[in-house]
Amino acid sequence: MAENSSCCTPEGSCHSGGTDVQVGEVTTTYRVTGMTCGHCEGAVRSEIGELAGVSSVQAVAATGLVTVTSKAPLDEDAVRAAVDEAGYELVGQAA
Q1: Between vectors from CA 35 to CA 27 and to CA 95, what angle results, nearest 5°?
Q2: Are 32 and 42 in contact (CB under 8 A)?
Q3: Could you give the count of Cα atoms lying within 13 Å of 62 in the half-sphere of its Cβ?
Q4: d(Cα 16, Cα 4) in Å, to the nearest integer?
Q5: DSSP conformational letter for 3
Q6: Which of 20-24, 69-73, 86-90 has the lowest mean pLDDT?
Q7: Cα–Cα distance between 82 and 47 in angstroms, integer?
Q8: Are 88 and 34 in contact (CB under 8 A)?
Q9: What 3-state class would DSSP assign to 39?
Q10: What is the distance, to the nearest Å, from the Cα of residue 93 to the centroid of all Cα atoms in its chain?
Q11: Higher-scoring residue by pLDDT: 24, 39
Q12: Is the pTM of the predicted complex or chain greater than 0.85?
């Protein structure tokens, strides 16, 4: 097997901590209020993750930030509806 045929690093890690972004993907960070724990993070991740084109969602209750990677820019109203469905409030895109 050729040395460069693996996606893993020499250290044995298959990913570099989420910094790998596929060409053509868009990453957007939103501010969400009301998340207080891991359960909250999971609910928000689950609902936003169901939106078409979303490839990853990272929610952090401590900061209220939700980072979404998608194949194309998302409609903010769709993100807002997903966050509302999870029981939280989308403030808007983080600065």
Answers
A1: 40
A2: no
A3: 0
A4: 16
A5: G
A6: 20-24
A7: 5
A8: yes
A9: helix
A10: 13
A11: 39
A12: no
Q: Which amino acid is residue 19, in one-letter code? A: T
Measured CA to CA, the distance from residue 5 to residue 44 in angstroms comes to: 36
State residue 78 phi and psi, 5-degree precision.
-70, -40
- The two structure tokens encoding residue 14: 């298959």
- Residue 87, token pair as written in the block: 């029981």
For residue 46, report the phi and psi dihedrals to the nearest 5 degrees. -65, -50
3-state helix, strand, coil in the chain (%, to 5): 25, 25, 45
CB atoms within 10 A of CB 15: 10
Listing DSSP states for 63-92 in one string gives TTEEEEEESSPPPHHHHHHHHHHHT-EEEE
